[in-house]
Amino acid sequence: MALQKLLIVGAVVAIAVPAAAHGTTKRSSSVNVGRLATLYQIDQLEVKWHKATSKKDLALLMSLFAPSVTLGINGTTLVGKAAVRKVFAKAAPFQPQNHWESDTPAYKIRVTVDGNRGTLYFECHYVDVDTGKVVAAVGGDNDVRRINGKWLFTKLVSSSVTLKP
Amino acid sequence: MAESVARFDPAAAAGFLRRLFSRTDNLLVRAVARLPAKLRTKLLASFLAIAALLVLISFLGVRALGHSHSLSERLKTLQTHQAGYQALATQATTVRDILGLCAGGADAYKFAHGGKAPPASRTNQCLRSIDRVVQTAVADLGQAVQLNFKPFADEAPLLRTVKRDDAKLAPLADTIARSKRLSLPLHQRAENLSRDLTFAAETLASLTTRKTNSLVAANRSSYVSSRNLFIGVAAGAVVLALLLGYFLSWSLIGPIQRIVGRLTAIASGDFSRHVEIANRDELGDLGARVNQMNDELQRVYGELETASRHKSEFLANMSHELRTPLNAILGFSQVLEKRLFGELNEKQGEYVEDIRSSGDHLLSLINDVLDLSKVEAGQIELEVAPFSLREAVERGVAMVRERASKNGVALAAELEPEVRIVSGDERRIRQILFNLLSNAVKFTPAGGRIDVTAARVDGEIQLAVTDTGPGIAPEDLDRIFEEFQQTQVGAKHHEGTGLGLALSKRLVELHGGRIWVESEVGVGSRFVFTLPVTQEVAA
Predict the structure, then answer these.
(1) How far apart are CA A50 and CA A57, in angstroms?
(2) Are strands A117-128 and B524-532 parallel, antiparallel or unpaired?
(3) Measured by CB atoms within 10 angstroms of the end CB, which terminus of chain B is less buried, N or C?
(4) Residue of B111, B191, B219 to mutate, testing the A interface (most A Cβ within 10 Å of its Cβ)
(5) Backbone CA torsion sign across B211, B217, B218, B219
(6) Is the ipTM beyond the 0.85 threshold?
(7) Contact, A10 vs B239, CB < 8 A?
(8) pLDDT digits over A93-104, tens only?
(9) Residue of B46, B20, B54 lying closest to B245 (CA atoms)
């Protein structure tokens, strides 16, 4: 009887194991979906940037920077969140007398991703709502990094606005 | 409608599985047995099947190894590309960062200084401070662009962009450095080129990283898949080989066991059945031959039984017919010997005695033949009843005592106290005992000794007659219980019929006992027979 049971189990194994081996998991296109999700998350940095500058929300802007962020602008490179905050505290969009709002045309954004690192280039057009004119156009050529699951700016470099549709 | 739907019956399924793996009633074993092929072909096919499974496993293993090797090679290439593109991206970023320091011009200044316009010389000072640094960084970028590997097809367009931008950027950086007039448009153009180049380099690095990660994941998945497939096929192959061996072996062993069983039955005289062998191979032929032999033996056995019965009937009839005239011969010779009709001269007396002696011998022979025939014909019916074995032994001993003392042979009987009443045909048992004692007296020389013993051994009565006669040669031991067989010594004595021991053996066996002899030439013999003890007598 023991031999019979052994043979029955053996027959089941003989059929089931190769079938299970054949049906191994195959990774779907979830990799592409994940990449699109990452691109979206990085793009949100640009969206929040404009929200912060348009609403004069310096805290929101600073929340987009990594602790060791660097900023290169006007021939100077600043290191650390505190130094960068001082620059932005004096920046035109955050001054009470200025009523600037900013945005980036869709064709003026470039994003690359490489694992937990990436680049985010965007050109900001600042409009004075009082006059309705573009008062400044500044590009930002930036490095971003995912830190503790959140995408943050690690390096900001100003650039000329050159992209055209 | 609902009744017509077939329902799953667990008991039937279990029965089917049990039959599937039963040795005696197995569908697959029977199917293998019924294959119209020689045993050699079946064995060869099964060995080839197992070999094919091994080849399959080996093939899968080699294939998996080859695939893994191919992936490793590709991974190595990708890692080379990845390192090159990351170095390129880093260098391009450096150029971009340096150029970015003065980028934006007046707008950047306005942005950073609360909306105020910059002084006229501010931008020029900035530009002047980075000219030489930009030239050096662009030269380093030119080194990084010289990649020492061949790009993949999907990398080629981006790499062409990188090389094209670098080709434009290098002279532009030289121009900026050599120019005495500062020009923001030249810087902006360099900035654009460096940004494009950085983007292309970053994209290349990112693309290669993705491909590397994807390849590592594919390699891991391939390993798991290959491992599972290999284990599965190996396990399946082992189980299939075991099943194959099981079915094939039982398609051979089952028929052999049935044939052995039938041959055993035939050996014990049972010709009533045929062996059923479904095999269409040599075993099937063997089964058919065994059945043929069974039929033939049954026929011959029947004929032999008939012939034996006829012989026994003939002997019984003949013995009876011979005794009638012999009684007249013996009777009249005894009358003459006793001189009832007058005196005989010496010669006549001697001849009459010879006639009577020969008549006695002939009568004894005829009686033995008659008894033996009756036994063989199944005409003897034992008159079984309890009787005193001690008395039977004493009477048997008394019958030969005179002759023994005449021959100078000592005769003694010793029965254990518990041997008292036994159940059997007293007359036949006395006949057996008399035969054994007669032989002992006949062959024991003067000065010899004969002992009769009876004891209870292993639940049966054992009677033994031991003499110090010449003994029996080992080659005679097996045949002395056959009809008309005598030892060499017995034949020289010209006494006896050669039927006494054969008849004794038949009579003992009729009682359900056994008889045998232990003997050593020159020392003596010990004839032993047993009688089973019935319960009521034993009690």
Answers:
(1) 10
(2) unpaired
(3) N
(4) B111
(5) positive
(6) no
(7) yes
(8) 999 999 999 888
(9) B46
Cβ neighbors of B138 (< 8 A, separation 6 or more) are: B95, B169, B170, B173
| Token duo for residue B371 | 């008894």
Checking DSSP bridges between strand A65-73 and strand A150-159, what pairing results, if any?
parallel
Interface membership of A39 toward B (CB under 8 Å): no
Rounded CA-CA distance B396/B412 in Å is 11
Q: Most A CBs within 10 Å: which of B102, B107, B121, as the mutation test of the A interface?
A: B107
The reply to whether A49 touches chain B by the CB within 8 Å rule is no
Chain A residues within 8 A of B243 when measuring between CB atoms: 7, 10-11, 14
As given in the structure block, the two tokens for residue B390 are 């001690």
The tens digit of pLDDT for each residue in B22-58 reads 666 677 788 888 888 888 888 898 889 888 888 988 8
> Is the CB of A76 less than 8 angstroms away from the CB of B100?
no
Domain A2-160, CATH? 3.10.450.50
- Measuring CA to CA, which residue among B172, B171, B202, B177 is closest to residue B190? B172
Backbone angles phi, psi at B468, to 5 degrees: -110, 40
The answer to whether A74 contacts B109, with C-beta atoms less than 8 Å apart, is yes
* Contact call for B18 and A91, based on CB within 8 A: no
Would an 8 Å CB–CB cutoff place B245 in contact with chain A?
no
**What's the predicted TM-score (pTM) here?**
0.51
Q: What is the pLDDT of residues A66-86, one digit of tens each?
A: 999 999 888 788 999 999 999
Classify burial at B164, counting beta carbons within 10 Å of its beta carbon; exposed 0-12, middle 13-18, buried 19 or more: middle
Q: Are B481 and B465 in contact (CB under 8 A)?
A: no
Phi-psi sector, B339: left (phi>0), alpha (psi -120 to 50), beta:
left
- Consecutive H or E run containing B354: helix B346-376
A32 neighbourhood in chain B, CB within 8 Å: none
Q: Tell me whether A133 touches chain B (CB under 8 Å).
A: no
